Amino acid sequence: MQVLVLAAVLGAMAWLVGNVQSNLERQNINSGFGFLSERAGFGINQTLIAYTEDDSFGRVLAVGLLNTLLVSALGIFFATLLGFSLGVARLSRNWLISKIAMVYIEIFRNVPLLLQIMFWYFGVLRNLPSPRQAVSIGDAIFMSNRGFVVLWLEASAGAFWYGLAALGLVIGGIWLRRRAANAQITTGQATRVWRPLLGLAVALFGGAALMAGVPFALDVPHLKGFNFRGGLTVIPEFVALLLALSLYTAAFIAEIVRAGINSVSKGQREASAALGLPESVALRLVVIPQALRVIIPPLTSQYLNLTKNSSLAVAIAYPDIVSVLAGTTLSQVGQALEIIFITMMIYLSLSLLTSWAMNRYNQRMAFVGNNT
Amino acid sequence: MTDPVIRISDMNKWFGTFHVLRDINLQVAAGEKIVICGPSGSGKSTLIRCLNRLEQHQEGVIEVEGVSLDGSVKNLESIRSNVGMVFQQFNLFPHMSVLENCTLAPIWVRQKTKQQAEALARQFLERVRIPDQADKYPGQLSGGQQQRVAIARALCMNPDIMLFDEPTSALDPEMIKEVLDVMVELAEDGMTMLCVTHEMGFARQVADRVIFMDEGEIVEENAPEAFFSNPQNERTKMFLSQVLSH
Amino acid sequence: MSAKTWTPKPARPAPANTVGFVGWARENLFTTKLDSALTLLCAALIIYVLDVGLGWAIVDASFSGDDRNACLKPVQGACWPFIDAKFGQFIYGRYPEMERWRVDWVFALGLLGLVPLLMPTVGFKRANVIFMLGFYPMFSFFMLTGGSFGLAAVDTSDWGGLLVTLVVAVTGIVGSLPLGILLALGRRSDLPIVRALCVGFIEIFRGVPLITVLFMASVMLPLFLPDGVNFDKLMRCLIGVALFASAYMAEVVRGGLQAIPKGQYEAAAALGLGYWKTTRLIILPQALKLVIPGIVNTFIGLFKDTTLVLIVGLFDLLGIVQLHFTDSTWATPETHITGYAFAAFVFWVFCFAMSRYSIFMEKHLSTDPNQ
After folding, report:
1. H helix or E strand, kind and range, residue A135
2. C81-95+154-365 — its CATH code?
3. Are the beta carbons of B51 and B146 closer than 8 angstroms?
């Protein structure tokens, strides 16, 4: 039986490969991955690493991948923020807040994501006035049909010291928090963290200022000719995609969070209350740790979905991996087989990596008693 | 009678429009053991849940250790920390070890150090006869063991009053005794106890007073001797005949 | 001695401020000062959103007119005449007007078969399934494509709008069902090679975005086929969508298979039934019933995903709306938003109704004593 199935599958594959070979020969299409080192010859309107038309298709791949990762990472950040707020709001004792969250969830998750992307891009952002009539918020953000231009800090070499100071502050903050938690456990005294933290911040940034002075210059956007100069320009494709991905995924995350918190039985809260634990402690030490166990696995798959959905970028020509590879590169090189293969492999490895990590997590959680 | 630690007068409670507790009057002295019984839906669980304000009453007065429980109560948490409660479904925290279950509240409410809290917890786990399970998780214990952990957890707060809400109803028959034994011991040590239970043997053995409730009212209360041998009401008789027949 | 008879005290009504609307509002809207403030804030938000929304959709909107001039007021809301003028296109695409009755028949017959199928209390499920999976697809195929039975042929490139959306979604889900069941059985099979192949297929298709599958279907499929054999664009998309959906369907069905207690397999084995008979007669009927909500949820996802076919050049509902934005007769600043609002509304009605149905079935299945 197995042999039969295997033989059938192999036979089918051989037939397909044969077809591909004869088709490629007939249509005179190259094969192999050699094209990756050839000159690309087209521009990309958002590059996180240096890129010119003279760079290779390999570089195009890297640029696209970074753009995918950028929009996914930011999307995950905002969707999580909004999704958790909505999930908690959905469970609010306040009827009105709960209903508003419900209406949001039901609207955004029942309308196709692609439609939402196009709505924000063609319907809203492309309908903004031209740069000369740009809508501005406090002269720091200018919104026009060419994208958003944001007030930005131009950093020179000395900024390194400030980066170091910020890093020190984060590490110091974590350390202080740990120490306070330990103090609570060993001495029973709750200590305040923010005072030493403030002191640390003053010391660190003071030191950085002494070392390097003020290595920042405000980069103020200003109108020159038909467009803006200066500031940080965010292309409208990016804004639309990020907005749609965050708003859409947040609706799903909200439902996951709601189900997670609901999965913690009422008895757990009652037992905490009966022991005299303050509401905030009960939430932090009893409810949230249990809810997170239920929330994290489906949350991860939502993150993965968001990353995969970022491929809809191709519809509005945001230069993500699918758009630059399966779109532009494919139309120039014509090697569909290799290009689609690369694209799929990239997403596939992201997925497999995530599900591997998830399985590890689930195993660990299953070990720490999962019974009530 | 010395000053009662719990005083309930003319207390009424509704769930929505449903009148669950009707004109309850009850006083409990320090060290008194009270067993509350009655058919399901009679309001007995609701009554003891009102005593640490897990449920809120709408009319009348409830005073616990001299503090009136109403919407204005400031230090509800400190009252709750002095009133221990044991639930039918144990309600242990499944993500914490037995020891962590017991030390959580002493650390965060009583401001004990971790060492003090653990010493205390081990002492009470010894008392409920499961000192060797301290590092296990609740899911790894039997029902009877879990309920004993729950009792130890409540005792770690050194409560003045203990409330038991049908502590043996969710247990397999062979585990009921191990939990009741712990409760009897606790009663012998002089703890003030209010216990909702159908274990009439327990009531006979330790109760100072047995209260029978039906339809949200206290139908009858009496010392166990008189209550069992000479019930005053037809309703009580009928209930006892049903409970004691098996 | 005689015992007293006890009569319960009559229940009194609850204090007036704890029941009725006042009690409800105190409990749910104004519990604390913070709650009251939040409630007022929310009320303001709702009023603002309604004001903007209704202002755009009704007060400032245009309702009649034959071209863009109807929608060029200084304060312009929705441009509904655009939808009115293009409605036929949005539903049927470029399907010839004379032949649209055929599409209507397909829609009507589908509805007629589907409604009793979805209602758990209506009988004749077996006959209904055979009708919907056997007769209906053939009927629809001949009706829509034509070229036989005296019907004029209509090329699939002329199909569009809601018609394409429904064809892609329904074919995708129906096509994915048998493949998904086989994959799910394969994944639970004892044969390591079969299992590995199924796991590989499922994980690959679940790991990549649908758009890459559609690219594959539209660009690569022609390469895989021998010279001279070719499908039209719609057919290629349908194959891609069905393969993609079958991977998700497999996981849904697997969930159902896992929920069947081991005793069922043992009982079947004790009766001397073989693997296929056990699966077909005992396991699948139970498992598939359990996963109806899961199938509906997969269908909702697929239904929304059908919009992606516009990227490879088919005109589904969203695609055709997008296409008609280029019509200069209707070029106004509000045309885009109006079109998207219409498409969003149509999609929303379908998806929302299906998600409610899925919840209903879940409740129904969990309370059904026959389970």
Report:
1. strand A135-137
2. 1.10.3720.10
3. no
